[in-house]
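User: Show me a protein chain along with its predicted structure.
Assistant: Here is one chain, sequence first, then C-alpha cells.
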Amino acid sequence: MFKLILSNLRQRPTRTLVSVVAVALGVALLLVSMGLSYGQLVDTVRRAQGIGGDFILQPSEASVIFALNSGTIPVRVQKVIEEVEGVEAATPILAKFLGDQFHIVFGIDPESFGRVNSTLSFVEGGRFSEPREVIIDTIYANSKKMHAQDPLQILGNEFTVSGVYREGIGARVLLPLTTLQELNGTPDKATMFFIRAKEEVPLEQVYESLKERFENYKITKTAELQEIMMDNAPAFKEFVTAMVCISVTISFLIILLAMYSTITERTREIGILKSLGASKSYIIRLILNESLLICAAGVGLGFLSTFVVIELLMAAFPTLPVSISLFWRVTAAAMAVTGGTLGALYPAVKAAGMDPVKALGYQ
C-alpha cells in the first residue's frame, strides 16, 4: 500500500506540494503566534519573580500585565506596607511601556529595591547614582552593542549607562524612580509595590495580613503570577482558541480539496482496484494514509519554517522573548493531522462507495 501511496503522490507533484505547504502554514502560524504570546508572558513572569518579592501590591483595577498600568499608587504607601506584621521590606516600582521599542522600563528606588532584591549582579559598572543614569540588562546591552558609560537615548532624553546587569531581573532598563516619575508626569506615584516577607513568618499568614490591611488593593503572590497571567491576560484565551481553529481549518480545507479532486481524477483507478477485490476499508485506508503522509510532511516543513521565522525575528528584535513549549509543538502537529484526517474522510468514503462498473467506464 505504501508504494501505491507514494506513486499517487508523485503523479501529482504540484498538488502534493501545495497541500504540504498549506499544512505547514497552519502549523507555523500556530507555533509562531503561541511562541511570541507565551514568550512575552513567561519572560514577564520570570523577570518579575527575579526581583525577589513574595507579593505584588497593585490598585484593585490594575492588570497583571504591567505594561497596561501607569503610576497610580502614592509612594508613601510603602511605609504602611512595611508596618504590616511579617513584612520584611517593600519597594515601589513605576512601569513605563515604550511603544517604539516594545519593552518596559522600570523606575526603582535603589535603597528599598536592594532590600527586596539580593540577586542583582553587574558584569560592567554598577548602580546609578545620578538622576540621568540608567542600568541595562545583558540582553539589551548586547542587542544595542552598549557598555557602561555609553550614552542612551530613551524617553526623549539622553542618559548615561552606569552599569550592565545580568538579565532576568525586572525590566530591560532600570532608572531612578524620581526621574521616571518626572518624565511620566506622575510625581510621588508608583505602579506597584514588590513586597518581601520575613523568612520566619509563613507566607500565607503575611498574605492574609496584607489582604486585611489593603482590602481595596490587589495582592498577588509572585509564585502564582504565571497562572494568573494566563487566566487574566486580555483576550489571551480567545486568541489561543482562534489560532487553533485557524490551524485546523487550513488543514481541513486544503486536504478536503486535494483529496476530493484526486478522487475525481482517479475514479477509473479506484474502479480497477475494486474490480481486483479491494474492499471498502482498503480504499478508505489508502486515502486516509495518503492524507496522513501529506500532513506529516506538512508538520515537518511547518517546524522548519517556524525555526526560520523565529531566527529572523530574533535577528531583527534581539530582546523579543519567544517560548515554544513541547506542549504546543505536539498540539500543532496534532491539529494538522486531525484537520487533514477529517478533510480526507469524506473523499475516502465517497471513493469506497463507488460502483466499480461505473468507475471503470469513467473517462
